[in-house]
Write a structure and sequence with these properties.
Keywords: Membrane, Transmembrane, Transmembrane helix. With about 140 residues, the protein is mainly α. It is about 50% helix and about 0% strand.
Protein backbone atom coordinates (compact mmCIF):
# COMPACT_ATOMS: atom_id res chain seq x y z
CA UNK A 1 0.00 0.00 0.00
CA UNK A 2 1.46 3.35 -1.06
CA UNK A 3 1.04 6.55 0.89
CA UNK A 4 0.04 9.42 -1.37
CA UNK A 5 2.83 11.89 -1.88
CA UNK A 6 0.62 14.81 -0.84
CA UNK A 7 -0.01 13.30 2.61
CA UNK A 8 3.68 12.54 3.04
CA UNK A 9 4.60 16.05 1.88
CA UNK A 10 2.06 17.61 4.25
CA UNK A 11 3.47 15.69 7.22
CA UNK A 12 6.99 16.72 6.24
CA UNK A 13 6.04 20.39 5.92
CA UNK A 14 4.19 20.36 9.26
CA UNK A 15 7.18 18.75 10.98
CA UNK A 16 9.60 21.26 9.48
CA UNK A 17 7.40 24.19 10.46
CA UNK A 18 7.17 23.05 14.08
CA UNK A 19 10.94 22.66 14.22
CA UNK A 20 11.57 26.02 12.58
CA UNK A 21 9.45 27.83 15.15
CA UNK A 22 11.44 26.27 18.03
CA UNK A 23 9.87 24.29 20.83
CA UNK A 24 10.58 26.62 23.75
CA UNK A 25 9.24 29.64 21.92
CA UNK A 26 6.05 27.74 21.09
CA UNK A 27 5.45 26.09 24.47
CA UNK A 28 6.61 28.91 26.78
CA UNK A 29 6.21 32.32 25.12
CA UNK A 30 6.30 33.95 28.58
CA UNK A 31 9.95 32.89 28.98
CA UNK A 32 11.16 35.02 26.07
CA UNK A 33 13.58 37.80 26.91
CA UNK A 34 15.75 35.94 29.43
CA UNK A 35 19.49 36.09 28.88
CA UNK A 36 20.68 33.36 31.24
CA UNK A 37 19.57 30.69 33.67
CA UNK A 38 19.25 26.94 33.97
CA UNK A 39 18.42 25.20 30.71
CA UNK A 40 15.10 23.36 30.65
CA UNK A 41 16.03 19.78 29.66
CA UNK A 42 12.60 19.06 28.14
CA UNK A 43 12.96 21.92 25.67
CA UNK A 44 16.56 20.96 24.90
CA UNK A 45 15.49 17.37 24.15
CA UNK A 46 12.65 18.53 21.90
CA UNK A 47 15.06 20.77 20.02
CA UNK A 48 17.54 17.87 19.78
CA UNK A 49 14.87 15.72 18.11
CA UNK A 50 15.00 18.22 15.30
CA UNK A 51 18.74 17.61 15.07
CA UNK A 52 18.21 13.87 14.76
CA UNK A 53 15.76 14.06 11.90
CA UNK A 54 16.50 17.38 10.22
CA UNK A 55 19.85 18.98 11.02
CA UNK A 56 19.20 22.47 9.71
CA UNK A 57 15.76 22.93 11.36
CA UNK A 58 17.16 21.49 14.60
CA UNK A 59 19.99 24.02 14.61
CA UNK A 60 17.52 26.78 13.84
CA UNK A 61 15.29 25.63 16.72
CA UNK A 62 18.22 25.72 19.15
CA UNK A 63 19.28 29.10 17.82
CA UNK A 64 15.82 30.60 18.20
CA UNK A 65 15.37 29.21 21.72
CA UNK A 66 18.76 30.46 22.89
CA UNK A 67 18.36 33.83 21.20
CA UNK A 68 14.89 34.39 22.62
CA UNK A 69 15.74 32.91 26.04
CA UNK A 70 12.81 30.48 25.92
CA UNK A 71 15.10 27.50 26.59
CA UNK A 72 15.86 28.73 30.13
CA UNK A 73 13.78 28.00 33.21
CA UNK A 74 11.99 31.09 34.53
CA UNK A 75 13.81 32.84 37.38
CA UNK A 76 12.84 31.72 40.87
CA UNK A 77 10.51 33.81 42.94
CA UNK A 78 10.57 34.32 46.68
CA UNK A 79 7.93 35.36 49.14
CA UNK A 80 8.06 36.65 52.70
CA UNK A 81 5.42 36.47 55.38
CA UNK A 82 5.52 38.53 58.56
CA UNK A 83 6.33 36.17 61.47
CA UNK A 84 3.65 37.83 63.59
CA UNK A 85 1.02 36.58 61.13
CA UNK A 86 2.30 33.01 61.54
CA UNK A 87 1.77 32.93 65.34
CA UNK A 88 -1.79 31.52 65.18
CA UNK A 89 -0.42 28.39 63.46
CA UNK A 90 2.01 27.64 66.30
CA UNK A 91 0.67 25.87 69.36
CA UNK A 92 1.66 26.63 72.96
CA UNK A 93 4.05 23.67 72.97
CA UNK A 94 5.75 24.79 69.74
CA UNK A 95 4.03 22.38 67.38
CA UNK A 96 2.84 23.67 64.05
CA UNK A 97 -0.72 23.11 62.90
CA UNK A 98 -0.34 22.46 59.17
CA UNK A 99 -3.97 23.28 58.37
CA UNK A 100 -3.76 26.71 60.01
CA UNK A 101 -0.35 27.35 58.47
CA UNK A 102 -1.65 26.41 55.03
CA UNK A 103 -4.62 28.76 55.43
CA UNK A 104 -2.38 31.64 56.52
CA UNK A 105 0.07 31.09 53.65
CA UNK A 106 -2.77 30.84 51.15
CA UNK A 107 -4.23 34.18 52.21
CA UNK A 108 -0.85 35.93 52.40
CA UNK A 109 0.80 34.50 49.29
CA UNK A 110 -2.23 33.84 47.14
CA UNK A 111 -1.25 30.26 46.34
CA UNK A 112 -1.89 26.88 47.88
CA UNK A 113 1.16 25.03 49.19
CA UNK A 114 0.96 21.24 49.68
CA UNK A 115 1.75 21.07 53.40
CA UNK A 116 -0.08 17.76 53.74
CA UNK A 117 2.24 16.05 51.24
CA UNK A 118 3.89 12.97 52.82
CA UNK A 119 7.22 13.92 51.21
CA UNK A 120 7.33 17.17 53.17
CA UNK A 121 10.39 17.36 55.40
CA UNK A 122 9.82 19.22 58.65
CA UNK A 123 12.67 20.66 60.67
CA UNK A 124 12.58 21.53 64.33
CA UNK A 125 13.27 25.15 65.22
CA UNK A 126 15.91 26.30 67.64
CA UNK A 127 15.26 27.76 71.08
CA UNK A 128 16.08 31.21 69.74
CA UNK A 129 13.43 30.90 67.05
CA UNK A 130 10.79 29.83 69.58
CA UNK A 131 11.56 32.74 71.90
CA UNK A 132 11.38 35.12 68.93
CA UNK A 133 7.75 34.03 68.55
CA UNK A 134 7.15 34.55 72.26
CA UNK A 135 6.87 30.81 72.98
CA UNK A 136 8.36 28.97 75.93
CA UNK A 137 10.52 26.06 74.76
CA UNK A 138 9.36 22.69 76.14
CA UNK A 139 11.80 19.89 76.79
Amino acid sequence: MRIPSRVLGGVLVATLLTQLTACGTLFYPDRRGQIEGKIDPAIAVLDAVGLLFYVIPGLIAFGIDFASGAIYYPPGTTAHVDPAKLKPAIGADGTVDNAKLQAILETELGQRLPLDDPRLIQHRGSVEQLTAFGLVPAA
